[in-house]
Design goal:
- The chain starts with a helix and ends with a helix.
- By secondary structure, it is mostly helical.
- The relative contact order is 0.13.
- It contains ten helices and no strands.
- The longest helix is centred in the first third of the chain and has 25 residues, at 17-41.
- The protein has two domains: 1-114, no CATH class; 124-234.
- It has helices at 3-11, 17-41, 49-69, 77-89, 99-110, 112-120, 125-149, 156-176, 179-202, 211-231.
Length: 234
């Protein structure tokens, strides 16, 4: 969820040393957020405090250096603060992580597309907008696919929503982007349709579809998206 929008932002601009610092800050921020949410769910268990301090301090130091060099990065707080509140709201003990929580994390991750392009010094507004839309389409689709075979497994309506979302992307990509994106969207649609089928067929077997299998499929899909983004810049 971090690597794909970050790399799509690089593909929409140019590689820059400042993007390395941005990547470090993003990873530290993610780890700090995940640890803080685990801390809340564990009713503020002391064991989570040391890693939270390390991740938080790393994010703060690198983030401050980035903001001093690129002040407009502060605009990202307009997105990160409200979506962060949604994410932490889902971390309360006894609270079920719903789809709104997942989409809030998607929106947070999407900030990396314009941020990576901005710190590169090769800002192209039109390309960044299109790149952000591409990253959003992939990440939203990923949330739908993963939920269709895990939290919403056995729910044909949710699986249909996931497949329908991906199928809609195929003609849109064909009309607005280079042909490789339409082929990519077609492949992602096939994966959205295949995973629920595989999950149902393996459910009663000794080897059911597990999260690690779904994760492996998503790694392949993520690599494909990044390759297309670099090979055919928007």
């Amino acid at each position: 969820m971090l690597a794909v929008p970050f790399l799509i932002g690089v593909a929409a601009s140019r590689p820059s040393p400042s993007q390395v610092a941005l990547a470090v800050c993003a990873v530290a921020a993610y780890l700090a957020s995940a640890t803080a949410q685990a801390w809340l769910r564990a009713r503020r268990a002391p064991a989570y405090v040391p890693p939270l301090v390390v991740y938080g301090a790393t994010c703060a130091i690198v983030g401050l250096a980035l903001v001093l060099s690129y002040p407009l990065l502060l605009l990202s707080l307009v997105v990160l603060v409200p979506t962060g509140a949604i994410a932490f709201g889902g971390a309360r003990p006894g609270t079920r992580r719903d789809v709104a929580n997942s989409f809030a994390q998607v929106v947070q991750a999407l900030v990396l597309v314009p941020a990576a392009a901005y710190v590169s010094g090769a800002w192209d507004g039109a390309a960044v907008v299109v790149a952000t839309v591409v990253a959003a389409a992939y990440l939203i689709g990923t949330v739908l696919v993963v939920r269709s075979v895990l939290r919403e497994r056995g729910n044909p309506g949710f699986a249909a929503l996931s497949i329908g979302f991906h199928a809609t992307l195929v003609p849109l990509a064909a009309l607005a982007l280079p042909p490789a994106y339409a082929l990519l969207a077609l492949g992602l649609t096939a994966r959205a349709a295949a995973l629920p089928l595989v999950q149902r067929r393996l459910a009663a077997t000794p080897r059911p579809l597990r999260p690690v299998h779904v994760g492996a499929v998503e790694i392949v899909a993520s690599v494909a998206v990044v390759i297309v983004a670099f090979a055919f810049p928007v």
